[in-house]
Amino acid sequence: METTGYATLSRQSGLMREMRVIANNIANSATTGYRQEGLIFSEFVKSAPGQESLSMSRANIFNTSMEQGQLTQTGGDFDFAIEGDGFFMVETPQGERLTRSGAFSTNAAGDLVTMDGYRVLDAGRAPVFVPPDAGKVEVGSDGSLSANGRLLGQLGLFQPVEQHTLVREDGVMFRVEGDIEENFDSKVLQGFLEGSNVNAISEVSRMIEVQRAYEMGQSFLQAEDERVRNAIKNLIKTT
């Protein structure tokens, strides 16, 4: 296969991957705390002595949008939204993870947990405990929890030291392949939830663009295949 064929095939593969990313964004456009994902294309060039260089496109770098999602008031005592760049930290079987989804509740033991039952951690990375007899819980902008004038703890707000070390594990959960630090600039809003930051209209438009680009690539490969077939037939005729 010639270089043009390799380049086109690698581009087609990247477009298919981008289509899956866009479809996932659209599917999660109503998911609380979801962060829109994008795909970055890069060029891969392979060369060897005495041979022509081979250029291929690669789409293997994922980019997560940190744009603030829309805040919706719910009035729930354990619904929290973050205004700023911070993340909540939760304890999972795989280790500590960061999330923007603040739809929490308390379990039978009094621990503050996510919808999946993962315990929410405080500023010292210990589980947040809410006594069953605490009464109405109020949360300050710094994440401090109190009830009837008694301080119960403080929700921890964290962020990766380097943004590129943030790796998505599922729709709303991230792991950090590096150092994590406390975030003191963000604010916690009680009775609010942050919606997805996906712009569904722009994602649908992008999906159409990617589909057209993929169809153009298919047309080129078919034309190239036909050209090669004709060249072989003509070569056979002349021999």
Keywords:
alpha+beta; 2 domains; seven-stranded antiparallel beta sheet; three-stranded antiparallel beta sheet; 2 helices
Alpha-beta classification? alpha+beta
Q: Determine the fraction of residues in helical runs and give it as a percent range.
A: 25-40%
Kindly state the number of beta strands: 18
Report the C-alpha radius of gyration, rounded.
Answer: 25 Å
Task: List the domain count as a whole number.
Answer: 2
How many separate helices?
2
As a percent range, the share of strand residues is: 25-35%
**Any low-confidence stretches, pLDDT <50, length ≥5?**
none
Question: What shape does the CA trace take?
Answer: elongated
| Sheet having the most strands | 7 strands, antiparallel
**N-to-C span:** 23 Å
Average of per-residue pLDDT values: 87
Sequence of secondary-structure elements: HEEEEEEEEEEEEEEEEEEH
Reconstruct the topology from this structure.
Layout: H1 3-27, E1 37-46, E2 54-64, E3 71-73, E4 80-83, E5 87-92, E6 95-99, E7 105-106, E8 112-113, E9 119-120, E10 138-139, E11 144-147, E12 150-154, E13 157-160, E14 166-168, E15 173-176, E16 180-182, E17 187-190, E18 192-194, H2 200-238
Antiparallel strand pairs: 1-2, 3-18, 4-17, 5-6, 5-9, 5-13, 6-15, 7-8, 10-11, 11-12, 13-16, 14-15
Helix pairs in contact: 1-2
